[in-house]
Amino acid sequence: MRKRFIKTSVCLSLLLLSAIFFGLIGCQSNDNPTPALNIEAIAQNLVADLSKQGYEVRYGYPALFGIEQCNDAIETMGNCYGNNPAAPYITPFVPSWPEEFVDPATKNAFGKPKDGYSSIYRLDPREAIIILALLPPPSKYFGFQTYIFTREGVINTNDDIYKWLLQFNNPVILKQFFDTSPNPKRLRIFGSMGNSNNNVVVENQSGTAFDQERFFIITPDQFMEKNMKAALLKAGVPRAEHIFVEPVSSAYNIGLTEEADDFTSLTRYAMPQDDDKAATWRTKLPIVVLRVREKNVTHQPEPYPPVVLDTRTANPEDWLKNDLQRLITEIKLDRGQLNATVLPVYDLQTAVDLVGPDCYQRGMNCLGDTQDTSYQGTLNLSLDNNEVYAVIGTLATTTGNATYVNLSLYRASTLWGVKSISDVNLQNTAKDYVGRVNNTDKFYLHYISRDCQKFVSILPACTSVTEDMVPKGDFLKIAQRNYIRPLTKRGPDSKQTLSPFIITFDGNKL
Question: What range does the domain containing 263 cover?
Fold first, then answer.
């Protein structure tokens, strides 16, 4: 499916050069394009050294997970995880160890794997997954994170959040947060395990981030961390600061048996400065994936303590609360529907404890969360009665609470992201209310309907949601994400920001 970006003669030369070590990467397959040559050289050196030391080393491969792969996710898991439709994710597929239990129920959770590989993996107590990567071109955000995906258990119907969700009398919404995996003995979790390695973390530690070679270790064993770091430096990594570790703590059930927790890893890369360069990087995916473990057990594992999350901060937005309410009133007056319903957009981190290390303990589906953003989301919204929705909120890029803002539209039944609207499109959209509302530069206003062409003369900022995107009879969900508060490593503290509101207008009366 991807194009081959190097000439055949060069490819054959590289194949000969790396035949010993690179049976699964390099030029062998269009599904596994050649990474940057320096990354390959370091990988070759690393594999040779680790093999000589007696480690078992196997190659994996990176793959995109975007809207095109949502069909596999929906067929396997019933939904597409509330994916951010702004850009595809990248996930490493790793070879399974011979004695590792691989759950057939979740085999295609992130797309169809090659035989013997999986995007969902268990962890040997003495292993490490190593990612060698040429990081992408500059963008507003890049982040790499590992998740617990499923674990053995039963739904806790006495949980406070479970009981809170019952009040909406909507089994679909309840099921999105509390459900078993396709394997009924296991719970859907998909929860972050701690703090991600994002572009700010990488830059703070190593000096630069984008377009740079950087190296990532995922391991439950501090002994393996120390040895893998030493091996990477010996293999050609110039500085220890170029290596980043994601510890899998003792809070998780480590092991290769059916009863153990399983995991997956995702890279997010969004809002590039140059779309063409970003597309080229995604096509080539200059990334090497290695899976390493001790063949001959020589030490007791040294587990990590439970993770401590970075503290989030925010510029308090409460001073804008009255202006936001005034803006809502003025918009209703302009549309001639003063009695239009105003619905809240819920802050998911406070309403449903959507913080991975917290919500996984509830046995709850954390929807692939990350500490790099805040989440606000709606209940189901109908589109079949000529509704026109106005979304009104503070624009976090102007309040100092985000590097970029993403407003995402979803097909509710499958949590399939169908449209993304960024802060670039939301900037200055409340300017018509200057003079009537204070601080309009701190707000955005965006309309959503089935057919914005009907209202083009009166609704300047509007997105159409066609029946191809959300079929008739299905519902719309809207989610807002505020990524990375400036001068920090994490998303804003949502307790100090204002959540958006939705006004429901009757399109027949506009």
Answer: 37-151+188-294
